[in-house]
Specification:
- The chain is an alpha/beta fold.
- The protein has one domain: 3-Layer(aba) Sandwich (Rossmann fold).
- Helix content is about 25%, strand content about 25%.
- The chain contains 11 helices and 17 strands.
- The strands form 2 sheets. The protein has a 12-stranded mixed sheet with strand order 1-2-14-12-13-11-10-15-16-9-6-5. The chain has a 5-stranded mixed sheet with strand order 8-7-3-4-17.
- The longest helix is centred in the first third of the chain and has 30 residues.
Protein backbone atom coordinates (compact mmCIF):
# COMPACT_ATOMS: atom_id res chain seq x y z
CA UNK A 1 0.00 0.00 0.00
CA UNK A 2 1.71 3.17 -1.14
CA UNK A 3 -0.71 5.73 0.33
CA UNK A 4 -0.50 5.11 4.07
CA UNK A 5 -2.83 7.95 4.97
CA UNK A 6 -5.03 10.55 3.26
CA UNK A 7 -6.59 13.58 4.92
CA UNK A 8 -7.71 17.11 4.11
CA UNK A 9 -4.06 18.20 4.38
CA UNK A 10 -2.84 15.69 1.79
CA UNK A 11 -1.19 12.28 1.77
CA UNK A 12 1.51 10.33 3.54
CA UNK A 13 3.00 7.92 1.03
CA UNK A 14 5.47 5.04 1.00
CA UNK A 15 7.37 5.43 -2.30
CA UNK A 16 9.22 2.14 -2.05
CA UNK A 17 6.06 0.03 -1.74
CA UNK A 18 4.73 1.67 -4.89
CA UNK A 19 7.91 0.78 -6.77
CA UNK A 20 7.81 -2.82 -5.58
CA UNK A 21 4.17 -3.23 -6.53
CA UNK A 22 5.10 -2.80 -10.17
CA UNK A 23 7.54 -5.73 -10.24
CA UNK A 24 5.46 -8.67 -9.12
CA UNK A 25 5.50 -10.98 -10.95
CA UNK A 26 8.83 -10.63 -12.73
CA UNK A 27 10.71 -12.67 -15.36
CA UNK A 28 14.46 -12.63 -15.85
CA UNK A 29 15.87 -13.23 -19.32
CA UNK A 30 19.38 -14.72 -19.58
CA UNK A 31 20.78 -16.28 -22.71
CA UNK A 32 17.28 -16.75 -24.20
CA UNK A 33 16.19 -18.57 -21.01
CA UNK A 34 13.73 -17.11 -18.56
CA UNK A 35 12.92 -17.75 -14.94
CA UNK A 36 10.74 -16.29 -12.21
CA UNK A 37 12.40 -13.83 -9.82
CA UNK A 38 11.24 -11.68 -6.95
CA UNK A 39 12.25 -8.07 -7.49
CA UNK A 40 12.43 -5.51 -4.67
CA UNK A 41 13.93 -2.04 -4.63
CA UNK A 42 16.82 -1.82 -2.16
CA UNK A 43 15.55 -0.90 1.30
CA UNK A 44 18.59 1.10 2.34
CA UNK A 45 17.71 3.75 -0.23
CA UNK A 46 14.72 4.77 1.90
CA UNK A 47 16.29 4.52 5.36
CA UNK A 48 16.74 8.23 6.17
CA UNK A 49 17.18 7.74 9.90
CA UNK A 50 18.48 11.14 10.96
CA UNK A 51 17.70 14.69 9.99
CA UNK A 52 20.49 16.99 8.96
CA UNK A 53 20.44 18.71 12.32
CA UNK A 54 20.43 17.34 15.86
CA UNK A 55 16.92 16.55 17.11
CA UNK A 56 16.19 13.62 19.44
CA UNK A 57 14.47 10.68 17.77
CA UNK A 58 10.72 10.73 18.33
CA UNK A 59 10.52 14.48 18.87
CA UNK A 60 7.60 16.24 17.25
CA UNK A 61 7.90 17.86 13.85
CA UNK A 62 8.94 21.45 14.34
CA UNK A 63 10.48 24.18 12.29
CA UNK A 64 11.79 26.74 14.74
CA UNK A 65 15.32 27.30 15.97
CA UNK A 66 14.08 28.22 19.44
CA UNK A 67 12.47 24.80 19.86
CA UNK A 68 15.62 23.14 18.55
CA UNK A 69 17.68 24.95 21.18
CA UNK A 70 15.28 23.81 23.89
CA UNK A 71 15.53 20.16 22.82
CA UNK A 72 19.25 19.90 22.20
CA UNK A 73 20.67 22.49 24.56
CA UNK A 74 22.77 23.84 21.70
CA UNK A 75 22.00 26.55 19.17
CA UNK A 76 21.83 25.44 15.54
CA UNK A 77 24.98 25.80 13.54
CA UNK A 78 24.86 28.61 11.04
CA UNK A 79 26.89 28.93 7.91
CA UNK A 80 28.88 32.15 7.87
CA UNK A 81 27.75 34.55 5.20
CA UNK A 82 30.18 36.55 3.14
CA UNK A 83 27.66 39.36 2.85
CA UNK A 84 25.36 40.62 5.56
CA UNK A 85 22.62 41.71 3.15
CA UNK A 86 20.37 39.28 1.32
CA UNK A 87 20.17 39.53 -2.44
CA UNK A 88 16.83 39.88 -4.22
CA UNK A 89 16.51 36.17 -4.90
CA UNK A 90 17.05 35.35 -1.23
CA UNK A 91 14.54 38.01 -0.17
CA UNK A 92 11.97 36.52 -2.56
CA UNK A 93 12.65 33.03 -1.20
CA UNK A 94 12.27 34.23 2.35
CA UNK A 95 8.98 35.98 1.58
CA UNK A 96 7.57 32.91 -0.17
CA UNK A 97 8.64 30.66 2.70
CA UNK A 98 6.89 32.86 5.25
CA UNK A 99 3.76 32.68 3.11
CA UNK A 100 3.62 28.86 3.05
CA UNK A 101 5.35 28.06 6.37
CA UNK A 102 2.22 27.46 8.42
CA UNK A 103 0.73 25.24 5.70
CA UNK A 104 3.88 23.09 5.67
CA UNK A 105 4.30 22.95 9.44
CA UNK A 106 0.69 22.32 10.47
CA UNK A 107 -0.12 19.97 7.62
CA UNK A 108 3.00 17.88 8.11
CA UNK A 109 2.46 17.63 11.86
CA UNK A 110 -1.11 16.45 11.32
CA UNK A 111 -0.13 13.81 8.76
CA UNK A 112 2.90 12.62 10.74
CA UNK A 113 0.91 12.33 13.98
CA UNK A 114 -1.87 10.41 12.23
CA UNK A 115 0.45 7.98 10.46
CA UNK A 116 2.34 7.39 13.73
CA UNK A 117 -0.93 6.35 15.34
CA UNK A 118 -1.13 3.64 12.68
CA UNK A 119 2.24 2.22 13.74
CA UNK A 120 4.50 3.88 11.17
CA UNK A 121 7.48 6.25 11.58
CA UNK A 122 8.93 4.44 14.59
CA UNK A 123 12.46 5.21 13.43
CA UNK A 124 13.40 1.55 13.20
CA UNK A 125 15.00 -0.24 10.31
CA UNK A 126 15.10 -3.89 9.33
CA UNK A 127 18.20 -3.55 7.20
CA UNK A 128 21.83 -3.52 8.14
CA UNK A 129 23.74 -0.36 7.38
CA UNK A 130 24.86 -0.89 3.82
CA UNK A 131 26.35 1.45 1.23
CA UNK A 132 23.96 2.90 -1.31
CA UNK A 133 24.03 1.53 -4.84
CA UNK A 134 26.45 3.57 -6.92
CA UNK A 135 25.86 2.56 -10.51
CA UNK A 136 27.64 5.00 -12.82
CA UNK A 137 24.99 6.22 -15.23
CA UNK A 138 26.34 6.74 -18.75
CA UNK A 139 22.96 6.99 -20.46
CA UNK A 140 23.23 10.72 -21.17
CA UNK A 141 26.60 10.17 -22.81
CA UNK A 142 25.12 7.38 -24.93
CA UNK A 143 22.37 9.75 -26.05
CA UNK A 144 25.03 12.20 -27.18
CA UNK A 145 26.73 9.45 -29.18
CA UNK A 146 23.39 8.43 -30.70
CA UNK A 147 23.08 11.87 -32.26
CA UNK A 148 25.65 10.72 -34.79
CA UNK A 149 23.17 8.16 -36.08
CA UNK A 150 20.92 9.24 -38.96
CA UNK A 151 17.40 10.38 -38.12
CA UNK A 152 14.56 8.00 -38.87
CA UNK A 153 12.98 8.71 -42.26
CA UNK A 154 9.51 10.24 -42.24
CA UNK A 155 8.14 7.09 -43.89
CA UNK A 156 9.45 5.01 -41.00
CA UNK A 157 8.13 7.35 -38.31
CA UNK A 158 4.69 5.78 -38.62
CA UNK A 159 6.19 2.70 -36.95
CA UNK A 160 7.96 4.41 -34.09
CA UNK A 161 7.55 1.70 -31.42
CA UNK A 162 9.02 -1.75 -30.93
CA UNK A 163 8.69 -4.73 -28.66
CA UNK A 164 11.09 -5.12 -25.76
CA UNK A 165 11.89 -8.81 -26.19
CA UNK A 166 12.02 -10.99 -29.30
CA UNK A 167 10.57 -14.49 -29.36
CA UNK A 168 13.92 -15.97 -28.41
CA UNK A 169 14.41 -13.51 -25.54
CA UNK A 170 16.93 -11.45 -27.50
CA UNK A 171 17.05 -7.68 -26.92
CA UNK A 172 20.08 -6.86 -29.08
CA UNK A 173 17.82 -5.69 -31.92
CA UNK A 174 16.15 -2.99 -29.84
CA UNK A 175 16.76 0.59 -30.98
CA UNK A 176 16.47 2.55 -27.74
CA UNK A 177 17.30 5.98 -29.17
CA UNK A 178 14.93 6.57 -32.07
CA UNK A 179 11.92 4.37 -31.27
CA UNK A 180 9.77 3.85 -28.21
CA UNK A 181 10.36 0.50 -26.57
CA UNK A 182 7.31 -1.24 -25.11
CA UNK A 183 6.74 -4.00 -22.60
CA UNK A 184 3.15 -4.98 -23.29
CA UNK A 185 3.00 -7.99 -21.02
CA UNK A 186 1.54 -8.33 -17.53
CA UNK A 187 5.03 -9.18 -16.27
CA UNK A 188 8.00 -7.10 -15.35
CA UNK A 189 11.10 -8.19 -17.26
CA UNK A 190 14.79 -8.21 -16.34
CA UNK A 191 16.59 -7.82 -19.65
CA UNK A 192 20.04 -6.98 -20.95
CA UNK A 193 20.27 -3.67 -22.78
CA UNK A 194 23.56 -2.13 -23.93
CA UNK A 195 25.46 -4.76 -21.94
CA UNK A 196 23.71 -3.95 -18.63
CA UNK A 197 20.72 -5.52 -16.90
CA UNK A 198 17.60 -3.39 -16.37
CA UNK A 199 14.20 -4.09 -14.84
CA UNK A 200 11.33 -3.01 -17.09
CA UNK A 201 7.83 -2.80 -15.51
CA UNK A 202 4.76 -4.22 -17.28
CA UNK A 203 2.71 -2.24 -19.81
CA UNK A 204 5.34 0.50 -19.95
CA UNK A 205 6.96 2.32 -22.84
CA UNK A 206 10.06 4.49 -22.93
CA UNK A 207 12.26 6.55 -25.24
CA UNK A 208 15.91 7.09 -24.36
CA UNK A 209 16.87 10.40 -25.97
CA UNK A 210 17.73 13.98 -25.22
CA UNK A 211 15.83 17.16 -25.97
CA UNK A 212 16.85 17.22 -29.64
CA UNK A 213 15.52 13.70 -30.39
CA UNK A 214 12.07 13.82 -28.79
CA UNK A 215 10.19 13.61 -32.11
CA UNK A 216 9.53 9.83 -31.93
CA UNK A 217 7.42 10.54 -28.84
CA UNK A 218 5.28 12.96 -30.85
CA UNK A 219 4.97 10.46 -33.72
CA UNK A 220 3.99 7.78 -31.21
CA UNK A 221 0.44 8.99 -31.79
CA UNK A 222 -0.80 9.08 -28.21
CA UNK A 223 -2.47 11.93 -26.36
CA UNK A 224 -1.97 11.79 -22.62
CA UNK A 225 -4.35 12.59 -19.76
CA UNK A 226 -1.52 13.19 -17.28
CA UNK A 227 1.93 14.65 -17.97
CA UNK A 228 4.46 14.86 -15.11
CA UNK A 229 7.85 16.47 -15.60
CA UNK A 230 10.91 17.06 -13.43
CA UNK A 231 13.03 19.48 -15.50
CA UNK A 232 16.79 19.71 -14.91
CA UNK A 233 16.59 23.27 -13.59
CA UNK A 234 19.65 25.46 -13.74
CA UNK A 235 21.13 26.38 -10.35
CA UNK A 236 24.52 26.86 -8.72
CA UNK A 237 24.59 23.54 -6.85
CA UNK A 238 23.95 21.60 -10.06
CA UNK A 239 26.76 23.45 -11.81
CA UNK A 240 29.14 22.78 -8.91
CA UNK A 241 28.30 19.09 -8.54
CA UNK A 242 28.03 18.36 -12.28
CA UNK A 243 25.67 15.53 -11.40
CA UNK A 244 23.58 16.14 -14.49
CA UNK A 245 23.30 18.66 -17.29
CA UNK A 246 20.77 21.43 -16.79
CA UNK A 247 18.42 22.99 -19.31
CA UNK A 248 17.80 26.73 -19.70
CA UNK A 249 14.25 27.67 -18.80
CA UNK A 250 13.67 29.18 -22.22
CA UNK A 251 14.24 25.81 -23.90
CA UNK A 252 11.47 24.20 -21.86
CA UNK A 253 8.98 26.15 -23.95
CA UNK A 254 10.05 24.04 -26.93
CA UNK A 255 8.70 20.86 -25.36
CA UNK A 256 5.78 19.71 -27.56
CA UNK A 257 3.29 19.52 -24.70
CA UNK A 258 0.31 20.74 -26.82
CA UNK A 259 1.00 17.87 -29.24
CA UNK A 260 1.11 15.33 -26.41
CA UNK A 261 -1.73 16.49 -24.16
CA UNK A 262 -5.35 15.47 -24.45
CA UNK A 263 -8.04 18.08 -23.67
CA UNK A 264 -8.04 18.89 -19.92
CA UNK A 265 -4.81 16.92 -19.48
CA UNK A 266 -3.40 17.43 -15.99
CA UNK A 267 0.15 18.83 -16.27
CA UNK A 268 2.34 18.58 -13.16
CA UNK A 269 5.79 20.17 -12.93
CA UNK A 270 8.33 19.72 -10.15
CA UNK A 271 9.78 23.12 -9.25
CA UNK A 272 12.77 24.00 -7.10
CA UNK A 273 12.39 26.45 -4.22
CA UNK A 274 13.71 29.33 -6.31
CA UNK A 275 10.85 31.83 -6.77
CA UNK A 276 12.15 32.68 -10.25
CA UNK A 277 11.49 29.09 -11.37
CA UNK A 278 7.99 29.17 -9.89
CA UNK A 279 7.21 32.48 -11.61
CA UNK A 280 8.52 31.12 -14.89
CA UNK A 281 6.25 28.06 -14.76
CA UNK A 282 3.16 30.03 -13.67
CA UNK A 283 3.58 33.16 -15.80
CA UNK A 284 5.48 31.97 -18.90
CA UNK A 285 5.72 28.22 -19.42
CA UNK A 286 2.14 27.16 -18.70
CA UNK A 287 0.55 30.10 -20.59
CA UNK A 288 2.84 29.36 -23.55
CA UNK A 289 1.47 25.81 -23.70
CA UNK A 290 -2.13 26.80 -23.03
CA UNK A 291 -2.08 25.30 -19.53
CA UNK A 292 -4.13 26.93 -16.78
CA UNK A 293 -2.63 26.79 -13.27
CA UNK A 294 -5.07 25.11 -10.87
CA UNK A 295 -3.02 24.32 -7.74
CA UNK A 296 0.35 24.35 -5.99
CA UNK A 297 1.33 21.33 -3.90
CA UNK A 298 4.32 20.54 -1.71
CA UNK A 299 6.40 17.41 -1.28
CA UNK A 300 7.62 17.35 2.33
CA UNK A 301 10.57 15.11 3.20
CA UNK A 302 10.80 13.53 6.66
CA UNK A 303 12.99 10.92 8.33
CA UNK A 304 11.88 7.46 9.45
CA UNK A 305 11.18 9.12 12.83
CA UNK A 306 8.99 11.81 11.29
CA UNK A 307 11.43 14.73 11.50
CA UNK A 308 11.98 17.24 8.72
CA UNK A 309 15.12 16.22 6.85
CA UNK A 310 16.28 19.86 7.02
CA UNK A 311 15.23 22.63 9.42
CA UNK A 312 12.03 24.17 8.12
CA UNK A 313 13.51 27.67 8.47
CA UNK A 314 16.93 26.85 7.06
CA UNK A 315 18.12 29.65 4.76
CA UNK A 316 19.96 27.13 2.57
CA UNK A 317 17.93 23.96 2.06
CA UNK A 318 14.27 23.47 2.79
CA UNK A 319 12.64 20.11 3.63
CA UNK A 320 10.07 20.61 0.89
CA UNK A 321 9.79 20.98 -2.87
CA UNK A 322 6.96 22.31 -4.99
CA UNK A 323 4.67 20.97 -7.67
CA UNK A 324 2.66 23.22 -9.97
CA UNK A 325 -0.51 21.60 -11.33
CA UNK A 326 -2.40 22.85 -14.36
CA UNK A 327 -5.00 21.81 -16.93
CA UNK A 328 -4.29 21.93 -20.64
CA UNK A 329 -6.99 23.90 -22.42
CA UNK A 330 -7.13 22.84 -26.06
CA UNK A 331 -7.51 25.74 -28.54
CA UNK A 332 -10.55 24.03 -30.09
CA UNK A 333 -13.29 23.27 -27.61
CA UNK A 334 -13.35 19.46 -27.91
CA UNK A 335 -13.13 18.90 -24.17
CA UNK A 336 -15.84 17.29 -22.07
CA UNK A 337 -18.07 19.47 -19.93
CA UNK A 338 -16.52 21.12 -16.90
CA UNK A 339 -18.83 19.11 -14.66
CA UNK A 340 -16.88 15.95 -15.55
CA UNK A 341 -13.53 17.52 -14.63
CA UNK A 342 -12.45 16.65 -11.09
CA UNK A 343 -11.35 19.88 -9.34
CA UNK A 344 -7.84 19.89 -7.88
CA UNK A 345 -7.52 21.19 -4.31
CA UNK A 346 -4.84 23.81 -3.65
CA UNK A 347 -1.93 23.64 -1.17
CA UNK A 348 -1.99 19.91 -0.52
CA UNK A 349 1.01 18.07 0.96
CA UNK A 350 2.65 14.82 -0.11
CA UNK A 351 4.74 13.68 2.86
CA UNK A 352 7.20 10.81 2.65
CA UNK A 353 10.61 9.51 3.62
CA UNK A 354 12.69 10.51 0.59
CA UNK A 355 15.12 8.38 -1.32
CA UNK A 356 18.78 8.85 -0.45
CA UNK A 357 19.52 8.66 -4.17
CA UNK A 358 19.98 12.04 -5.78
CA UNK A 359 17.09 13.21 -7.98
CA UNK A 360 14.79 10.24 -7.29
CA UNK A 361 11.28 11.61 -6.78
CA UNK A 362 8.30 9.64 -5.42
CA UNK A 363 5.78 8.38 -7.92
CA UNK A 364 2.59 10.47 -8.07
CA UNK A 365 0.42 7.84 -9.77
CA UNK A 366 -1.72 6.86 -6.76
CA UNK A 367 -2.09 10.44 -5.50
CA UNK A 368 -3.14 11.83 -8.90
CA UNK A 369 -5.39 8.96 -9.96
CA UNK A 370 -8.61 10.56 -8.60
CA UNK A 371 -7.99 13.66 -10.74
CA UNK A 372 -7.36 11.86 -14.03
CA UNK A 373 -9.15 8.53 -13.73
CA UNK A 374 -7.90 4.97 -13.33
CA UNK A 375 -7.63 4.41 -17.10
CA UNK A 376 -5.71 7.63 -17.84
CA UNK A 377 -2.80 7.57 -20.27
CA UNK A 378 0.22 8.89 -18.35
CA UNK A 379 3.51 10.38 -19.50
CA UNK A 380 6.63 11.40 -17.58
CA UNK A 381 9.11 13.82 -19.15
CA UNK A 382 12.75 14.01 -18.00
CA UNK A 383 12.13 10.65 -16.31
CA UNK A 384 14.91 8.73 -14.56
CA UNK A 385 12.80 5.64 -13.93
CA UNK A 386 9.82 3.77 -15.37
CA UNK A 387 6.34 3.11 -14.01
CA UNK A 388 3.84 0.37 -14.85
CA UNK A 389 1.37 1.58 -17.46
CA UNK A 390 3.26 4.83 -18.11
CA UNK A 391 5.19 6.19 -21.07
CA UNK A 392 8.52 7.78 -20.09
CA UNK A 393 11.07 9.97 -21.89
CA UNK A 394 14.49 11.32 -20.94
CA UNK A 395 18.21 10.95 -21.50
CA UNK A 396 18.48 8.97 -18.23
CA UNK A 397 15.12 7.25 -18.46
CA UNK A 398 16.55 3.88 -17.31
CA UNK A 399 18.79 5.25 -14.56
CA UNK A 400 16.94 3.79 -11.56
CA UNK A 401 15.90 0.66 -13.47
CA UNK A 402 19.43 -0.76 -13.33
CA UNK A 403 19.52 -4.04 -11.38
CA UNK A 404 22.09 -2.58 -8.97
CA UNK A 405 19.19 -0.71 -7.33
CA UNK A 406 17.17 -3.89 -6.83
CA UNK A 407 17.38 -7.12 -4.89
CA UNK A 408 16.64 -10.06 -7.19
CA UNK A 409 15.96 -13.49 -5.72
CA UNK A 410 14.69 -16.69 -7.37
CA UNK A 411 10.94 -17.10 -6.97
CA UNK A 412 9.54 -20.40 -5.72
CA UNK A 413 12.12 -23.05 -6.65
CA UNK A 414 13.60 -20.91 -9.42
CA UNK A 415 12.09 -23.15 -12.08
CA UNK A 416 11.99 -21.87 -15.62
CA UNK A 417 8.77 -20.40 -16.93
CA UNK A 418 6.78 -22.92 -18.91
CA UNK A 419 6.30 -22.61 -22.65
CA UNK A 420 2.61 -21.79 -22.13
CA UNK A 421 3.51 -18.95 -19.78
CA UNK A 422 6.11 -17.75 -22.23
CA UNK A 423 3.48 -17.52 -24.92
CA UNK A 424 1.11 -15.65 -22.61
CA UNK A 425 3.75 -13.10 -21.68
CA UNK A 426 5.27 -12.57 -25.13
CA UNK A 427 5.64 -8.94 -26.19
CA UNK A 428 4.35 -8.19 -29.68
CA UNK A 429 5.07 -5.21 -31.87
CA UNK A 430 2.10 -3.06 -32.87
CA UNK A 431 0.52 -4.12 -36.13
Amino acid sequence: MSVLLQSDQGWFVDPRSLIDRGYSPCIRWRDTQKSHVECRFNKQCFQILKSHYSVPAGAAVDGGNADMLQKTGKPPKKRKRKHSELNQGELDSQAFHEKVRSVILEGTKSLVDSVRSLGHLNGGTDTAKEPLPSQECSLAALCEMAKELPLVDEEEQECCSQSLVAEDGCTSHVDLFSRLTENRTDWAAVVTLMGEEYVIPPHSAFLLSDFTRIQPLVHYGRRFDLIVMDPPWENKSVKRSRRYSSLPSSQLKQLPVPLLASPNCLVVTWVTNRPSHLRFVRDELYPHWGVEVVAEWFWVKVTTSGQFVFPLDSPHKKPYEMLVLGRYRAPVDTSPSEASEVPVEDQRLIVSVPSALHSQKPSLSDVLKPYVGAEAKCLELFARSLQPGWTSWGNEVLKFQHTSYFTLTPADDGADVSKDEAADTQVFSPA
